[in-house]
Write a structure and sequence with these properties.
The complex is a heterotrimer of chains A (about 190), B (about 150) and C (about 170).
Chain A: H1 3-14, E1 19-21, E2 24-29, H2 34-43, E3 51-59, E4 65-73, E5 78-86, E6 92-94, H3 103-114, E7 117-119, H4 145-149, H5 162-167
Parallel strand pairs in A: 2-5, 6-7
Antiparallel strand pairs in A: 1-2, 3-4, 4-5
Chain B: H1 6-14, E1 22-26, H2 30-40, H3 42-47, E2 61-65, H4 73-82, E3 88-92, H5 94-98, E4 120-122, H6 129-143
Parallel strand pairs in B: 1-2, 2-3, 3-4
Helix pairs in contact in B: 2-6
Chain C: H1 7-22, E1 36-39, H2 49-53, E2 59-68, E3 78-89, H3 98-102, E4 108-111, E5 125-126, H4 128-135, H5 152-166
Antiparallel strand pairs in C: 1-4, 2-3, 3-5
The chains are: A alpha/beta (about 190), B alpha/beta (about 150), C alpha+beta (about 170).
């Protein structure tokens, strides 16, 4: 099926129009219809999106989290991305383990990395993080402690020594990419 | 148990003069270079035994090849503790030397020397198979004053 | 089935290539092989680009400023940066080559030397003297592809020659 045909079929099936984004079709699904939408596109004989590819999440900061599901149809060789948004203070979506059994581990990983709840999941234990790890590493407000703790060699200006660079507090020094702004994280 | 008495160490190391039994703790991409070295290089095959050791009890050198994540660190430590004395560790590649490209990750141990004592560090990302040979030669120089070439 | 390679023959061929590639004595390292990074201090102006672009933060540079007398009698005194420390931590280095590529003054070069294992992580931090020593192992750049454009210096030299000899003919 061509992307246009897929888009038309999805719209007829779900009542939601997909958009072309990131080289694929993306449809934004309301949280309440998450499991129903996945079931519908999986069971539809025309779409046949039976292959569960990946379930992940995107931290949209003030706008909440996007839980992203990518499905593929081996017969029709077309794909679809479904996206559900949940607010930051109520970060939970229905679990898809009843629709795709393989989603269980993906949801465990998203839960440990983003601290998003999945209602109906049989056991949301951590998957990859070591025991005793605190925090949700893939949230955008999770500070990359190593970059904050280590002195960047690039703060030294041409003609300076390392001690001079460490002592200089004057104008704003060049910061490395990815280093959290001082003051944006709790100092020990 | 403390460090071995020197006479005992000399006797045990004498058996390592011509042949090292190498345990490859292959954690990531550097493991592939280790396999390439041990399979493809005649000089490595002369120095290190061809087949992997049947278990930790006969190992001379533990080669840590790959990124040591915080989740794998206890396993690497447990392996090291099973090696018989005098045991040596060769750190293969940037990740096991210092954390390498993933030094800033939230779940990477910045160098395997944080959990086990390391005798030789082989730099590279990944190091060439021939660099492993050079590292093993340097290691065998630690076991004996005049190792074979 | 025609066209499908024989598994055993292919495996034997692959292993043969591998054996030839890892023979240390007869090592025919490919051109532009990445072993260590060498520093030509004379070219370095301490612009700090390599240290700032390095993804591993493994280049440590310190310098001070020195003033040279002016070239002309009423000119300005010239200030230049002098390196105090230029160190690369090869224990951290991932041999990406970003520093070599970004250097605007061609002060960093790749050398194929790879036998520099150390017993201590500090042995893997190479200071200025050692980085200069690696310069003597930097190979001649490989020749350009026959179909490639000639190097910019050659084009410029030819143009200058034509202008001087040909008197106004376009290059």
């Amino acid at each position: 099926m061509t992307p246009a045909q897929v888009a038309a079929r999805v719209e007829a099936l779900l009542g939601l129009a997909p958009r072309e984004a990131y080289g694929t079709l993306v449809v934004d699904v309301p949280r309440e219809q998450w499991a129903a939408a996945a079931t519908a596109v999986r069971d539809d004989p025309e779409l046949g999106l039976v292959l569960f590819d990946v379930l992940t999440a995107v931290d949209e900061q003030q706008d909440g989290f996007d839980v992203v599901l990518r499905l593929w149809s081996p017969a029709g060789r077309h794909g679809l991305v479904l996206r559900a948004r949940c607010p930051r203070d109520d970060a939970r979506v229905p679990s898809l383990t009843g629709v795709f059994a393989g989603a269980a581990w993906h949801e465990r990983s998203v839960a440990e990395m983003f601290d998003i709840g999945f209602d109906g999941h049989p056991g949301l234990t951590p998957l990859l993080l070591p025991a005793g790890f605190t925090g949700s590493p893939l949230r955008k407000d999770f500070v990359l402690a190593s970059r904050a703790a280590r002195a960047w060699p690039g703060t030294v200006e041409p003609g300076q020594s390392a001690e001079q660079a460490a002592a200089s507090t004057g104008r704003r020094r060049t910061q490395a990419p990815g280093v959290p702004r001082p003051g944006s994280w709790p100092q020990p | 148990m403390g460090p071995l008495p020197e006479p005992v160490r000399l006797v045990l190391d004498a058996g390592r003069r011509y042949r090292l039994s190498v345990l490859d703790v292959g954690l990531a991409c550097c493991a592939v270079e280790f396999v390439a070295a041990s399979l493809g290089d005649a000089a490595v095959a002369r120095l290190a035994a061809d087949a992997p050791p049947p278990g930790p009890r006969t190992v001379d050198v533990m080669v840590v090849a790959g990124t040591v994540t915080d989740a794998m660190a206890p396993a690497v430590r447990a392996l090291w503790e099973q090696l018989p004395e005098p045991r040596r560790v060769l750190s293969f590649g940037a990740c096991s030397n210092t954390g390498g490209p993933y030094w800033d990750s939230y779940c990477v141990t910045k160098g395997v020397d944080q959990i086990v004592p390391v005798d030789v560090y082989v730099p590279g990302c990944p190091p060439r198979p021939a660099a492993l040979l050079h590292g093993l030669r340097q290691l065998s120089a630690l076991t004996t004053p005049d190792p074979p070439a | 089935m025609t066209g499908v390679p024989d598994d055993e023959a292919a495996l034997a061929q692959g292993l043969d290539v591998l054996r030839r590639a890892v023979q240390p004595g007869a090592a025919q390292l490919p051109s532009r092989s990445r072993g260590v990074i060498a520093l030509l201090e004379e070219n370095c102006t301490v612009c700090m680009l390599c240290a700032r672009e390095c993804p591993d933060w493994c280049i440590y540079i310190e310098s001070h400023q020195e003033t040279d007398p002016p070239l002309a009698p009423r000119g300005r005194p010239r200030v230049r940066n002098v390196l105090d420390r230029f160190a690369i931590d090869f224990g951290l280095c991932m041999y990406c080559g970003i520093c070599v590529e970004v250097c605007p003054f061609d002060a960093l070069f790749w050398s194929p030397e790879f036998e520099h294992a150390g017993a201590d992580p500090d042995d893997l931090v190479h200071e200025r003297e050692q980085l200069r020593a690696w310069m003597w192992t930097v190979p001649v750049p490989p020749p350009l592809d026959p179909a490639a454009e000639p190097p910019a210096e050659v084009v410029a030299a030819r143009r200058a020659e034509q202008r001087a000899g040909g008197g106004g003919h376009p290059a």
